[in-house]
Amino acid sequence: MTSEHSLNFRTNKIMQVINIFRFFLSILIVIGHTRYMGDSLFLQIIAKIMLVSVGYFFFLSGYGLSYSFANKPLYDDKFLINKALSFISLTLPVYIFQALIFFFLDIKPLSTEPILDYLYSINWYLLELYFFYILFFILFKFYFKQIELLTWITCFSMIIFLPLTDIPPQYYFSCCGFALGVSIYKHGDKLLSIRDDSIIPYILVLVSGLLASMVGLSFPQRSIIAAIGKNIVVVSFCLFLFMVIRNNNDTVINSKLLFYLNSISSGIYIYQFPIIKALRNYWDIHGIKYSFFSITVVVATAIVASVDRVVKIGIITIYEKRYKTNID
Fold it and tell me: Of the ranges 4-8, 26-30, 129-133, which one carries the lowest mean pLDDT score?
């Protein structure tokens, strides 16, 4: 195997490895968003994990974009158009779904709430994610050699300046996860070469995350120090998780069930909010236990996400055949 082929094999292996926990972390996020239905230490822990779970998805996006631009021929061709279509396919169905389910459950009448207002307040993750998509595309086209550096500078700028605005804290609490993904793609081989019997790197990463967590929780949410601390926590978590699973065996990575569950993780994330709201309304009226509420939300969200995936695969297949392009 040539060095170039060896490098491609390793980068492909990393791409598989970092996707292992997509489904499980999406479920943790959903459970975390149901925490207002109860009060316990378990819910508090899940709420904290939820922050780093969202950061991990930014990390996946940063690595995934770097991998795709470097390894998929003509990936940048029609990139913005394809991502715009992807954005619409993610936002419009859930927007309509929420309006309809609220109407039929008599929660609220059909409204004309602007879709961007809906995204800004609820599915903010998609707005920030597509901001990073556009940023990466511009850097790839015009500042290729400085992609990693300029991505980190952008994230640091968000951490420093956004706390001074009225923008919600979630927009800058986990943004460095994306920059870390870009860096991992560039320097991932060095992490793969770390000896398994060396625990010092793991300890350093964990201690950094723990200290940063203590700092982040000690300051008001809308503060630069809190933003820095929480981003360090995100970076530490993503780096530690990657280091732990980087040499996972192919049996786990190639699991068909895991592949399917990971494929609906995005749908789970975006459909959770209308389902949580709808079921919370039912809970307020009839009263159910938190555990039942949480399980019901997870199952219902997974079912809706599965249906959404089937429909979109059919639409994408038709589109790709008609215009002879690939949407990725």
Answer: 4-8
pLDDT given at position 134: 92
Q: What is the pTM of this model?
A: 0.80
Q: Answer whether 188's CB lies under 8 Å from 6's CB.
A: no
CB-CB neighbours of 90 under 10 Å: 21
- Helix-, strand-, coil-residue percentages of the chain, each rounded to 5: 80, 0, 20
Helix axes 290-323, 22-33, angle to 10 degrees: 130
How many Cβ atoms from other residues are within 10 Å of residue 194's Cβ? 14
What DSSP state is assigned to residue 112?
-
Q: Is the pLDDT of residue 3 over 50?
A: no
Q: Residue 304 corresponds to which tokens in the numbers above?
A: 């809706």
Q: How far is CA 91 from CA 67, 270, 271, 308, 311, in A?
A: 25, 8, 10, 12, 14
Could you tell me the sign of the dihedral formed by the alpha carbons of 230, 232, 238, 241, in that order? Answer: negative
Let me know: does 230 contact 212? Beta carbons within 8 Å: yes
Higher pLDDT among residues 259 and 110, named by residue: 259
Residue 223 has pLDDT above 90, yes or no: no
Does an H or E element contain 120, and which? helix 115-121
Q: Which two tokens stand for residue 57?
A: 């998805």
Mean pLDDT of 171-189: 86
Among the listed ranges 147-156, 177-186, 240-249, 262-271, which one has the minimum average pLDDT value?
A: 240-249
Q: What is the largest CA-CA distance in the chain?
A: 65
- Within 8 A by CB and 6+ apart from 50, the residues are 28, 29, 32, 33
Cα 261 from chain centroid (whole Å): 15
